[in-house]
Backbone:
Protein backbone atom coordinates (compact mmCIF):
# COMPACT_ATOMS: atom_id res chain seq x y z
CA UNK A 1 0.00 0.00 0.00
CA UNK A 2 1.25 3.48 -0.74
CA UNK A 3 1.70 6.18 1.86
CA UNK A 4 -1.34 6.91 3.97
CA UNK A 5 -3.01 10.21 3.24
CA UNK A 6 -1.29 13.53 2.60
CA UNK A 7 1.30 15.23 4.77
CA UNK A 8 1.15 18.94 5.57
CA UNK A 9 3.57 20.98 7.64
CA UNK A 10 2.22 21.68 11.10
CA UNK A 11 4.63 22.99 13.69
CA UNK A 12 7.38 20.54 14.58
CA UNK A 13 6.09 17.64 12.52
CA UNK A 14 3.78 17.00 9.56
CA UNK A 15 0.24 15.95 10.29
CA UNK A 16 -0.77 12.71 8.61
CA UNK A 17 -4.28 12.39 7.27
CA UNK A 18 -6.09 9.09 6.75
CA UNK A 19 -6.83 7.71 3.28
CA UNK A 20 -10.01 8.79 1.56
CA UNK A 21 -12.98 6.47 2.04
CA UNK A 22 -13.13 3.91 -0.76
CA UNK A 23 -15.32 1.05 -1.92
CA UNK A 24 -12.33 -0.82 -3.33
CA UNK A 25 -12.38 -3.38 -0.51
CA UNK A 26 -16.06 -4.25 -0.89
CA UNK A 27 -15.11 -7.41 -2.82
CA UNK A 28 -17.05 -10.61 -2.25
CA UNK A 29 -13.99 -12.77 -1.49
CA UNK A 30 -14.83 -12.62 2.23
CA UNK A 31 -17.86 -14.70 3.21
CA UNK A 32 -20.88 -12.79 4.58
CA UNK A 33 -20.85 -14.80 7.82
CA UNK A 34 -17.18 -13.95 8.39
CA UNK A 35 -17.85 -10.28 7.76
CA UNK A 36 -20.67 -10.28 10.32
CA UNK A 37 -18.27 -11.95 12.74
CA UNK A 38 -15.72 -9.22 12.11
CA UNK A 39 -18.36 -6.56 12.72
CA UNK A 40 -19.36 -8.23 15.98
CA UNK A 41 -15.74 -8.32 17.09
CA UNK A 42 -15.28 -4.62 16.28
CA UNK A 43 -18.37 -3.83 18.33
CA UNK A 44 -17.09 -5.97 21.22
CA UNK A 45 -13.71 -4.31 21.25
CA UNK A 46 -15.15 -0.80 20.99
CA UNK A 47 -17.76 -1.32 23.69
CA UNK A 48 -15.36 -3.18 25.96
CA UNK A 49 -12.71 -0.47 25.78
CA UNK A 50 -15.34 2.24 26.28
CA UNK A 51 -16.51 0.43 29.41
CA UNK A 52 -12.92 0.05 30.61
CA UNK A 53 -12.52 3.82 30.25
CA UNK A 54 -15.73 4.42 32.23
CA UNK A 55 -14.55 2.11 35.02
CA UNK A 56 -11.19 3.86 35.10
CA UNK A 57 -12.91 7.22 35.50
CA UNK A 58 -14.87 5.68 38.40
CA UNK A 59 -11.48 4.77 39.94
CA UNK A 60 -12.32 1.08 39.79
CA UNK A 61 -9.49 0.11 37.43
CA UNK A 62 -6.33 -0.47 39.41
CA UNK A 63 -3.35 1.30 37.89
CA UNK A 64 -3.39 2.86 34.45
CA UNK A 65 -4.67 1.39 31.19
CA UNK A 66 -3.83 1.71 27.51
CA UNK A 67 -6.87 1.48 25.26
CA UNK A 68 -7.22 0.43 21.63
CA UNK A 69 -10.10 2.76 20.80
CA UNK A 70 -9.75 3.50 17.09
CA UNK A 71 -7.27 0.66 16.55
CA UNK A 72 -9.66 -2.29 16.79
CA UNK A 73 -9.45 -3.44 13.16
CA UNK A 74 -5.91 -4.79 13.55
CA UNK A 75 -6.60 -7.22 16.37
CA UNK A 76 -10.01 -8.17 14.95
CA UNK A 77 -8.63 -8.95 11.50
CA UNK A 78 -5.72 -11.02 12.78
CA UNK A 79 -7.83 -12.80 15.36
CA UNK A 80 -10.21 -13.97 12.65
CA UNK A 81 -7.38 -15.20 10.44
CA UNK A 82 -5.36 -17.06 13.09
CA UNK A 83 -5.63 -20.74 13.92
CA UNK A 84 -6.79 -21.58 17.45
CA UNK A 85 -3.38 -22.95 18.42
CA UNK A 86 -1.39 -20.03 17.02
CA UNK A 87 0.42 -17.72 19.43
CA UNK A 88 -0.16 -14.02 20.17
CA UNK A 89 2.37 -11.67 21.78
CA UNK A 90 1.09 -8.18 22.57
CA UNK A 91 2.19 -4.96 24.24
CA UNK A 92 0.70 -3.26 27.29
CA UNK A 93 -2.06 -2.15 24.86
CA UNK A 94 -3.27 -5.72 24.79
CA UNK A 95 -6.95 -5.82 25.77
CA UNK A 96 -8.16 -6.06 22.17
CA UNK A 97 -5.60 -8.70 21.17
CA UNK A 98 -6.57 -10.82 24.16
CA UNK A 99 -10.29 -10.62 23.41
CA UNK A 100 -9.74 -11.27 19.70
CA UNK A 101 -8.24 -14.66 20.54
CA UNK A 102 -11.48 -15.68 22.23
CA UNK A 103 -10.83 -14.81 25.88
CA UNK A 104 -14.19 -13.92 27.50
CA UNK A 105 -14.80 -10.32 28.51
CA UNK A 106 -15.67 -10.91 32.17
CA UNK A 107 -12.27 -12.24 33.36
CA UNK A 108 -10.46 -9.52 31.42
CA UNK A 109 -12.58 -6.79 33.01
CA UNK A 110 -12.17 -8.41 36.41
CA UNK A 111 -8.40 -8.42 35.91
CA UNK A 112 -8.48 -4.69 35.21
CA UNK A 113 -10.40 -4.27 38.46
CA UNK A 114 -7.85 -6.37 40.37
CA UNK A 115 -10.38 -9.02 41.42
CA UNK A 116 -9.90 -12.71 42.22
CA UNK A 117 -12.10 -13.71 39.27
CA UNK A 118 -9.75 -11.89 36.92
CA UNK A 119 -7.91 -13.63 34.11
CA UNK A 120 -4.79 -13.79 36.29
CA UNK A 121 -6.40 -13.65 39.69
CA UNK A 122 -6.17 -9.88 39.80
CA UNK A 123 -2.37 -9.96 39.95
CA UNK A 124 -1.51 -8.95 36.39
CA UNK A 125 -3.73 -5.98 35.74
CA UNK A 126 -4.27 -4.18 32.46
CA UNK A 127 -0.71 -4.43 31.14
CA UNK A 128 0.05 -8.13 31.70
CA UNK A 129 -2.87 -10.08 30.24
CA UNK A 130 -2.01 -13.71 29.52
CA UNK A 131 -4.06 -16.78 28.60
CA UNK A 132 -2.04 -19.80 27.51
CA UNK A 133 -5.31 -21.63 26.87
CA UNK A 134 -6.14 -19.15 24.12
CA UNK A 135 -2.61 -18.81 22.76
CA UNK A 136 -2.09 -15.38 24.32
CA UNK A 137 1.45 -15.68 25.63
CA UNK A 138 1.55 -12.35 27.35
CA UNK A 139 1.22 -8.60 27.16
CA UNK A 140 4.59 -6.96 27.71
CA UNK A 141 5.13 -3.56 29.30
CA UNK A 142 8.81 -3.26 28.33
CA UNK A 143 9.10 -1.80 24.83
CA UNK A 144 10.44 -4.40 22.41
CA UNK A 145 10.99 -7.05 25.10
CA UNK A 146 8.64 -9.57 23.57
CA UNK A 147 9.95 -9.69 19.99
CA UNK A 148 12.81 -12.04 20.78
CA UNK A 149 10.56 -14.09 23.06
CA UNK A 150 8.11 -14.42 20.16
CA UNK A 151 10.96 -15.80 18.07
CA UNK A 152 11.44 -18.46 20.73
CA UNK A 153 7.81 -19.55 20.47
CA UNK A 154 8.07 -19.62 16.68
CA UNK A 155 11.28 -21.65 16.83
CA UNK A 156 9.58 -24.13 19.15
CA UNK A 157 6.76 -24.60 16.64
CA UNK A 158 9.29 -25.00 13.83
CA UNK A 159 11.25 -27.67 15.71
CA UNK A 160 8.08 -29.54 16.68
CA UNK A 161 6.63 -29.27 13.19
CA UNK A 162 3.30 -28.21 14.70
CA UNK A 163 2.34 -25.74 11.96
CA UNK A 164 1.70 -23.05 14.58
CA UNK A 165 2.47 -19.44 13.75
CA UNK A 166 3.44 -16.70 16.19
CA UNK A 167 2.03 -13.20 15.66
CA UNK A 168 3.87 -10.44 17.49
CA UNK A 169 2.23 -7.00 17.78
CA UNK A 170 4.15 -3.87 18.71
CA UNK A 171 3.95 -0.10 18.38
CA UNK A 172 5.81 2.20 16.01
CA UNK A 173 8.24 3.28 18.72
CA UNK A 174 9.52 -0.28 19.01
CA UNK A 175 11.06 -0.01 15.54
CA UNK A 176 13.79 2.20 17.03
CA UNK A 177 14.63 -0.34 19.73
CA UNK A 178 17.57 -2.72 19.26
CA UNK A 179 15.44 -5.82 19.94
CA UNK A 180 13.35 -5.03 16.85
CA UNK A 181 16.36 -5.32 14.56
CA UNK A 182 17.79 -8.33 16.39
CA UNK A 183 14.46 -10.17 16.22
CA UNK A 184 13.87 -9.43 12.53
CA UNK A 185 17.37 -10.51 11.58
CA UNK A 186 17.15 -13.73 13.57
CA UNK A 187 13.68 -14.62 12.26
CA UNK A 188 14.81 -14.04 8.67
CA UNK A 189 18.05 -16.03 9.02
CA UNK A 190 16.26 -19.06 10.48
CA UNK A 191 13.06 -18.63 8.43
CA UNK A 192 10.90 -18.72 11.55
CA UNK A 193 7.08 -18.99 11.34
CA UNK A 194 6.44 -15.57 12.83
CA UNK A 195 4.51 -12.50 11.69
CA UNK A 196 5.63 -9.15 13.09
CA UNK A 197 2.90 -6.51 13.10
CA UNK A 198 3.73 -2.86 13.71
CA UNK A 199 0.62 -0.98 14.89
CA UNK A 200 1.74 2.43 13.68
CA UNK A 201 -0.58 4.91 15.39
CA UNK A 202 1.85 7.73 14.47
CA UNK A 203 2.93 8.45 18.05
CA UNK A 204 5.42 6.75 20.34
CA UNK A 205 3.82 7.72 23.62
CA UNK A 206 3.87 11.56 23.41
CA UNK A 207 6.26 12.02 20.48
CA UNK A 208 5.49 11.86 16.78
CA UNK A 209 7.32 8.87 15.29
CA UNK A 210 8.16 11.08 12.30
CA UNK A 211 10.23 13.39 14.50
CA UNK A 212 12.80 10.80 15.50
CA UNK A 213 12.87 8.25 12.66
CA UNK A 214 15.08 8.48 9.60
CA UNK A 215 12.56 6.86 7.22
CA UNK A 216 8.90 7.76 6.57
CA UNK A 217 7.56 4.27 7.29
CA UNK A 218 9.28 3.02 10.46
CA UNK A 219 8.62 -0.68 9.84
CA UNK A 220 7.96 -1.13 6.11
CA UNK A 221 10.96 0.95 5.01
CA UNK A 222 13.26 -1.30 7.03
CA UNK A 223 11.92 -4.64 5.80
CA UNK A 224 14.36 -4.84 2.91
CA UNK A 225 17.27 -4.83 5.37
CA UNK A 226 16.18 -8.32 6.38
CA UNK A 227 15.25 -9.57 2.95
CA UNK A 228 11.55 -9.06 3.52
CA UNK A 229 9.01 -7.27 1.31
CA UNK A 230 7.69 -3.90 2.42
CA UNK A 231 4.08 -4.40 3.51
CA UNK A 232 2.21 -1.26 4.59
CA UNK A 233 -1.56 -1.44 4.94
CA UNK A 234 -4.57 0.54 6.10
CA UNK A 235 -4.86 -0.65 9.69
CA UNK A 236 -8.33 0.87 10.03
CA UNK A 237 -9.84 -1.41 7.35
CA UNK A 238 -10.60 -4.78 8.92
CA UNK A 239 -11.02 -6.49 5.54
CA UNK A 240 -7.58 -5.32 4.43
CA UNK A 241 -6.11 -6.50 7.72
CA UNK A 242 -7.83 -9.89 7.47
CA UNK A 243 -6.64 -10.52 3.91
CA UNK A 244 -3.09 -9.46 4.71
CA UNK A 245 -3.06 -11.57 7.86
CA UNK A 246 -4.34 -14.64 6.03
CA UNK A 247 -1.59 -14.35 3.40
CA UNK A 248 1.19 -13.84 5.96
CA UNK A 249 -0.02 -16.69 8.15
CA UNK A 250 -0.18 -19.06 5.19
CA UNK A 251 3.32 -18.08 4.11
CA UNK A 252 4.71 -18.74 7.58
CA UNK A 253 2.75 -21.98 8.02
CA UNK A 254 4.01 -23.35 4.72
CA UNK A 255 7.65 -22.75 5.61
CA UNK A 256 8.01 -19.43 3.78
CA UNK A 257 9.41 -17.61 6.79
CA UNK A 258 8.52 -14.37 8.56
CA UNK A 259 6.66 -11.26 7.46
CA UNK A 260 6.80 -7.68 8.68
CA UNK A 261 3.54 -5.75 8.34
CA UNK A 262 3.06 -2.07 9.11
CA UNK A 263 -0.60 -1.33 9.82
CA UNK A 264 -1.23 2.42 9.93
CA UNK A 265 -3.91 3.41 12.42
CA UNK A 266 -4.71 6.06 15.04
CA UNK A 267 -5.65 5.93 18.69
CA UNK A 268 -8.69 8.04 19.51
CA UNK A 269 -7.34 9.09 22.90
CA UNK A 270 -4.00 9.65 24.53
CA UNK A 271 -1.24 7.14 25.12
CA UNK A 272 -2.81 6.04 28.41
CA UNK A 273 -5.72 7.15 30.52
CA UNK A 274 -3.37 9.61 32.24
CA UNK A 275 -2.67 11.34 28.90
CA UNK A 276 -5.10 13.90 27.42
CA UNK A 277 -3.23 13.75 24.09
CA UNK A 278 -3.12 17.51 23.61
CA UNK A 279 0.20 17.36 21.76
CA UNK A 280 -1.60 16.15 18.61
CA UNK A 281 -2.73 18.70 16.00
CA UNK A 282 -6.48 19.27 15.99
CA UNK A 283 -6.86 18.80 12.25
CA UNK A 284 -5.13 15.44 12.43
CA UNK A 285 -7.24 14.19 15.34
CA UNK A 286 -10.51 15.27 13.72
CA UNK A 287 -9.64 13.65 10.40
CA UNK A 288 -8.76 10.30 11.96
CA UNK A 289 -11.79 10.34 14.25
CA UNK A 290 -13.90 10.65 11.12
CA UNK A 291 -12.04 7.68 9.59
CA UNK A 292 -13.36 5.30 12.21
CA UNK A 293 -12.87 1.54 11.59
CA UNK A 294 -16.22 0.58 13.11
CA UNK A 295 -18.27 3.26 11.35
CA UNK A 296 -16.58 2.58 8.03
CA UNK A 297 -17.12 -1.17 8.28
CA UNK A 298 -20.77 -0.78 9.12
CA UNK A 299 -21.14 1.41 6.03
CA UNK A 300 -19.48 -1.29 3.92
CA UNK A 301 -21.82 -3.99 5.22
CA UNK A 302 -24.80 -1.76 4.49
CA UNK A 303 -23.57 -1.30 0.92
CA UNK A 304 -23.29 -5.06 0.63
CA UNK A 305 -26.93 -5.48 1.58
CA UNK A 306 -26.84 -6.20 5.31
CA UNK A 307 -29.92 -4.75 6.98
CA UNK A 308 -29.47 -2.04 9.58
CA UNK A 309 -31.76 -4.01 11.87
CA UNK A 310 -29.32 -6.95 11.85
CA UNK A 311 -26.38 -4.70 12.65
CA UNK A 312 -28.39 -2.94 15.36
CA UNK A 313 -29.18 -6.37 16.81
CA UNK A 314 -25.49 -7.26 16.98
CA UNK A 315 -24.71 -3.95 18.67
CA UNK A 316 -27.46 -4.53 21.24
CA UNK A 317 -26.29 -8.12 21.90
CA UNK A 318 -22.78 -6.87 22.53
CA UNK A 319 -24.04 -4.12 24.86
CA UNK A 320 -25.87 -6.72 26.96
CA UNK A 321 -22.76 -8.92 27.06
CA UNK A 322 -20.59 -6.01 28.20
CA UNK A 323 -23.10 -5.14 30.94
CA UNK A 324 -23.15 -8.75 32.14
CA UNK A 325 -19.36 -8.96 32.09
CA UNK A 326 -19.14 -5.73 34.05
CA UNK A 327 -21.43 -7.01 36.79
CA UNK A 328 -19.58 -10.32 36.98
CA UNK A 329 -16.28 -8.48 37.26
CA UNK A 330 -17.53 -6.07 39.93
CA UNK A 331 -18.92 -8.93 42.00
CA UNK A 332 -15.53 -10.58 42.25
CA UNK A 333 -13.68 -10.48 45.55
CA UNK A 334 -10.44 -8.64 46.07
CA UNK A 335 -7.46 -11.01 46.29
CA UNK A 336 -6.48 -12.36 49.70
CA UNK A 337 -3.22 -11.07 51.12
CA UNK A 338 -1.85 -14.62 51.00
CA UNK A 339 -2.10 -14.63 47.21
CA UNK A 340 0.94 -12.33 47.10
CA UNK A 341 3.03 -15.39 47.96
CA UNK A 342 1.67 -17.64 45.21
CA UNK A 343 2.61 -17.90 41.52
CA UNK A 344 5.99 -16.36 42.28
CA UNK A 345 8.15 -19.27 41.13
CA UNK A 346 7.48 -22.05 38.63
CA UNK A 347 6.35 -24.43 41.39
CA UNK A 348 3.66 -21.98 42.46
CA UNK A 349 5.25 -21.11 45.78
CA UNK A 350 7.30 -18.25 47.20
CA UNK A 351 10.35 -20.22 48.35
CA UNK A 352 13.19 -20.88 45.94
CA UNK A 353 14.06 -24.57 45.83
CA UNK A 354 17.70 -25.46 46.46
Residues:
Amino acid sequence: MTAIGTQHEYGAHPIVLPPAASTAQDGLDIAPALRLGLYRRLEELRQFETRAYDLFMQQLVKGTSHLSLGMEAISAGFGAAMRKDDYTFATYRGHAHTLSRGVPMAPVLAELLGRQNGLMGGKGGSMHLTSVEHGVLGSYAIIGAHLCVANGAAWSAQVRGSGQVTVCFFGDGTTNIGAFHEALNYAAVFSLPVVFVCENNLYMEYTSIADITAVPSPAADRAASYGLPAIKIDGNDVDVVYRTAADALELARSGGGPSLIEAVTYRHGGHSRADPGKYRPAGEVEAWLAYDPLTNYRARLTRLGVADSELDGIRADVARAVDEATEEAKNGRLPDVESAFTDVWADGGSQWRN
